[in-house]
Amino acid sequence: MILILKSGVSEDQVTHVLERVEALGFQAHLSRGTYRTIVGIIGDESQLTPESLSAIPGVSKVIPVLPPYKLASLEAHPEPSVIDVSGVKVGGGHLAMIAGPCSVEDPERMDRIAGLVRAAGANLFRGGAFKPRTSPYAFQGLGEEGLRILRDVGRKHQMPTVTEVTDPRNVELVAEYCDMLQVGARNMQNFVLLTEVGRTQRPVLLKRGMSATITDLLMSAEYVLSQGNPNVVLCERGVKGFDSATRNLFDVAAVPAVKTLSHLPIIVDPSHATGRPDLIPACAMAGLAAGADGVHIEVHDCPEEAKSDGPQALLPGQYAELMHQLRDLAHLLGKSISPLPGVAA
Ligand code: PEP
Ligand code: MN
C-alpha cells in the first residue's frame, strides 16, 4: 500500500503517519519528493483497510499495490485455471458450450432439445428451474420438479447440467441435482448466496451483474473462492446500455480485460447480451475471438411456446450451424471444445 501525503503536510503529521503505520505492525518507508511526500507500507496488504488509512491527518490518497480480489487475481495464480464440470473442462484452451432453453419445461421438450444441442456439439445442458423474473406474475420456474427433469434429461444424454440458484436456502437442494450452479446477473452481489455456493465444491457459473464493473465481478468471485470453492467460471452477459436496439450492451472487451487480471475462465452469453437471435452468431464468434473460454446460448425448438426468453432463443438448426463456425474458429485459435465425459475427443 502506498500513502501519498497532502502537499503542505506538517512534520508532526508525517511523524504521526509513520507512528500509526508502525503501530499497525507494518514497516513504513518514507520518501520525500520535491512536491510530495510518499509513505510505502511494507507487509501483508490484505490486513490493512484503505478507509482507515485515508482518515489519518495529512494523508491525501491511499493506493493499494495488489488488487482487492486476492484469490481471483493473476498474482495469486499466474496460470489459467481449468474448471472441471463433471468431466467437462473449462479454461486453459478447453471450451464450454452451454446450451438449452431459458426455463426447464416439460420432459419431452427437454429431452428433444438436449438431443439436438448435444448432436450439434454442446457439452453442458442448461435450463432454469428457479427463474428470477422482473414481474412476480411471470413464470417462476418449475422448482424442484424442474430440477428433477433437468437431471434426468442430462443423465439420459450424458450431459452435465447447469441451472440457476436464486436463494441461499436452496443451494444444497440445487447442488444435489445439477453439476454447475449458476448465479445470475440479478444475484451477482447477493453476498449471502455467494457465500453459500462458496461452501459447496460445485462449479459456479457467475454471471456479471447488469450494472457491475469488472472489479465488482471479480470481488463477487472472491466471495466464492474465499469460502473454499475454487471452481468459478465467469460470464459476460451484457450490461445496461442506453440503446434499446439490443437487450443489453455486449461488453466483449470485458473478456480480454478479465484475462489481464484473473486466472478464472470467462465465457460469453450473447443470448442475454443481445436478446436478438440475428445478432447471436456474430457476438458468439466475437466472444470466442476475444479469448472467451466458452459460449452460453439459449436454444428452443419452438420459441413462441417458450416459458421465458423465447424471442432470443436460437432454433436447434441455427445453433448447429453456429457450432460449425465456432468449432472452426476454435481450431484456428488452438482451442478445442471439451468432449463430453466418456466420449472420445
Ligand atoms: C438466464 O440464464 O436465463 C438468466 C436469467 O440469465 P441472466 O442472469 O444473465 O439474466
Ligand atoms: Mn434466459
Can you characterise this structure?
This protein has 11 helices and 15 strands. With 345 residues, the chain is α/β, with parallel strands linked by helices. Helix 3 packs parallel to helix 11 and helix 6 crosses helix 7. The site of manganese (II) ion has 5 residues, from loops.
State the shape. elongated
Number of strands: 15
| Percent in strands | 15-25%
The pLDDT mean sits at 97
Helix tally?
A: 11
Small-molecule binders: phosphoenolpyruvate, manganese (II) ion
Main sheet properties:
9 strands, parallel
Structural class: alpha/beta
Please write the string of helix (H) and strand (E) elements: EHEEHEEEEHEHEHEHEHEHEHHEHE
- Approximately how much helix is present in the residues? 25-40%
Distance between the ends: 48 Å
Rg, rounded, reads 23 Å
Low-confidence stretches at least 5 residues in length (pLDDT < 50)?
Answer: none
Compose a concise summary of this entry.
The chain has 345 residues and is of the alpha/beta class. Helices cover 33% and strands 19% of the residues. α3 packs across α4 and α10 packs parallel to α11.
Layout of SSEs?
Layout: E1 2-5, H1 11-23, E2 27-32, E3 37-42, H2 50-54, E4 59-63, E5 83-85, E6 88-90, E7 94-100, H3 107-120, E8 124-126, H4 144-156, E9 161-164, H5 171-177, E10 180-183, H6 191-198, E11 204-207, H7 214-226, E12 232-236, H8 254-261, E13 266-268, H9 270-274, H10 280-289, E14 294-298, H11 316-332, E15 336-337
Parallel strand pairs: 7-8, 7-14, 7-15, 8-9, 9-10, 10-11, 11-12, 12-13
Antiparallel strand pairs: 1-3, 1-4, 2-3, 5-6
The structure holds phosphoenolpyruvate (PEP) and manganese (II) ion (MN).
